[in-house]
Amino acid sequence: MLLNKVLAHGARAGRIVEVEAYAGALDPASHAYRGRTARNATMFGPPGHLYVYFTYGMHFCANVVCGPDGAASAVLLRGLTPLAGLEEMRAARGPAARRDRDLCSGPGKLCQALGIDRAFDGADLVIGDGGVVLGDDGTPPPRAAGVSGRIGLSVAADVPWRFYVPGAVGLSRSR
DNA sequence: CTTTGGATCGTCT
DNA sequence: GACGATCCAAAGG
Fold it and tell me: Mean of the pLDDT values across residues A90-104?
């Protein structure tokens, strides 16, 4: 359960409030569906590492590899509540992020805000090599997490594998 | 508030 | 050669 864990890069940190699950080779919507390639190699590795990919010619998205070595299961980080390093986040995001709640309210946004790019692909989030760490500040997972279909997919979007903290700051807009 | 279209390029077919 | 686990600005209500 990643909800309410904390992702930090240097002085910048945010609480994970929205995620989506991808079930490796069994999931038509997963990058791992058509087997291992140079791009998705990290997903096929051990859990606890960061899988970062580039899409739409301009955005990065970050996943946490969660299945055992070889399973290629991963969880996409879709939304964070900004906790620290807000000034740095604003500088990285630019004028488009008018309110604090806009800083990390989307998969591409949170990567831009935290300064995560392809160079961080494969980083170990537990020991924090590369400067990106996944931590726990004692906040328990939500008593009742919200659930919905996944967003932005052309296949298997109806599978209810999007989980979020109801009412939290930093959720991407739901449909 | 909602809807719509453009930007932009690495990766796989 | 096509398309994507997206975002944003602009335009209309």
Answer: 95
